[in-house]
Amino acid sequence: MSNINSFYNWSNSLLETDQKMPVLFIGHGSPMNAIEDNEFTKRWQKMGQEIPKPRAVVVVSAHWLTKGTAVTAMSQPKTIHDFGGFPQALFDVQYPAPGDPNLATEIQKLVTNPSLVLDHEWGLDHGTWSVVKHMYPNADIPVLQLSIDYHKPAKYHYELAKQLLSLRKKGVLIIGSGNMVHNLRMVAWNKLSEPEFGYDWALEMNAIFKEKISTRNHSDLIVYEKLNKAASLAIPTPDHYYPLLYILALQTDTDEVEFFNDKAVGGSLTMTSVKIG
Hints:
- By secondary structure, this protein is of the alpha/beta class.
- The protein has a single domain (19-276), classed as 3-Layer(aba) Sandwich (Protocatechuate 4,5-dioxygenase, Chain B).
- It has nine helices and ten strands.
- It has a six-stranded mixed β-sheet with strand order 5-2-6-1-10-7, sandwiched between helices.
- Helix 1 crosses helix 4 (126-135) and helix 5 runs parallel beside helix 9.
C-alpha cells in the first residue's frame, strides 16, 4: 500500500483508493490477552498480516462510553490501563501508536448526524490496545478511538456508523472491539482453563448471532433483545455488543463474512469475531 502521505491532497482530505479495507469485530475478552500468547492473540497477529496494511486504524471500543460521540484527536494518545486486579506486567504495557488529528477532523466532517466532538483527553483503552498491539506490534500506524454514546439505543449506533463507509476506501481499518456474548456476573471462574466451555444459553445466542450476521439480517440484530429469552443473559448490558453494530453497518452487498476465534470462555463469554470484506 502507498505511504501515509499519499493519502492526502493539498487540503488535507483523505483520498479514496481502488482498494476497500475490510472491517473487523473482535471479541477482546480478558485484558490479559494483551500480554498472553494464546490461540486468540495468535489469530489477531495473523489477521494483521493477512489484510492490507492500513493507513490508520479507528476502533469503537466497549470501554469508552460517553454522553454524545467523540473521536480522539491528539497526536500522541496515551495508553489507558482501565482495569484493576491484574499483574503489574499488564500495567507496564505501553502502546505508543501515534494519533492522527487530520483524520479525526475528517471523521468529524463525515458524521453530520449527530455532530462529533474532537477529544484530546482520552487515549487508547484496553479494548483497543490489547488487540491492536498484536496486529501491529511496531505501533507505527495511527490509531484513533470513536466513543459510544451510551445514552442512545442500538439503532442510533447502527445509523451513525453508516456515515463512516467512505473510510473503507481511504485506507482506514475500522474495528469494533467487544464481545457478542458478555456476562461477567455469570463467568465460571473455575472453568476458565477448560477449553470451549460455554453455558447452553451462551452457545445458543452465539449461534443465533452468527446466523443473523451470515444472512445479513441486521434488523434482528439491532433489536437483539427480542431474539429470544437467552438474549438478556447474553447481553445484560449492551456496552460490549454495540461495537458489533458499527461493523455490521459498514457491510456492503459484495462483502464476504468470515468468523474466527469462535469459542466460548468461562461459560458466559464468547470470543467470536467477524471479518467483513
